[in-house]
Amino acid sequence: MLDILAVDLRNALRIFRRSPGFAATAVVSLAVGIAAATGLFSIVNAALLNPFPFADINRIVRLDMIDKGKPRGLGVTVRQLVALQQSDVLDGAFASNNWPMTLTGRGVPEAVPTGELSADGLNVLGVAPLLGRVFHDADGPAG
After folding, report:
1. What backbone torsions phi and psi does residue 62 show, to the nearest 5 degrees?
2. Among candidates 62, 132, 50, 142, which has minimal Cα distance to 97?
3. Where do the H-state alpha helices sit in the chain?
4. Can you list the residues of the chain whose pLDDT is less than 50?
5. CA angle 104, 107, 110 (to 5 degrees)
6. pLDDT at 112
7. Which pLDDT belongs to residue 142?
């Protein structure tokens, strides 16, 4: 098998020496094709396959409650959240809540989505803030 590969490689090098224009065209074509495929995969990977910047995204689980086909909030007390955070089964746990609010003060009032996150939420998700620092336990009460 290796002998056949060596013979094929010698023949290819001989052909490339006899016609350097063909060799240059082949090398440039391969380079452009590899660059295009790499660029396209990077875009598809970032946009479709892994759109969120979370660390270990395949290990994140979200718990919700659905009552008769309608989503409802999953109520967790502070004690339950602290127990989940201290559990040996989970790497981390945090609570979050989202709702729309109205922004007023300048110009026309505008509906904006808002959210609330327990202090260790960004650490659990493995997300670094774009500005400032992450929240610490001292920034809010336990849970």
Report:
1. -115, 130
2. 62
3. 2-18, 20-44, 78-85, 121-125
4. none
5. 50
6. 92
7. 61
CA angle at residue 124 from 123 to 129, to 5 degrees?
Answer: 35
The reported pLDDT for the residue numbered 141 is 65
User: Is 99 within 8 Å of 114 (Cβ atoms)?
Assistant: yes
- pLDDT number for residue 62: 80
Q: Which residue in this structure is represented by tokens 């395949």?
A: 58
- In one letter, which amino acid is 68? K
Q: How far is CA 79 from CA 27, 48, 93, 97, in A?
A: 64, 37, 12, 17
Note the pTM of the prediction, 2 decimals. Answer: 0.54
pLDDT of residue 16: 86
Cβ(121)–Cβ(96) below 8 Å:
yes
- CA 130 vs CA 121, 133, 139: distances in Å: 15, 8, 18
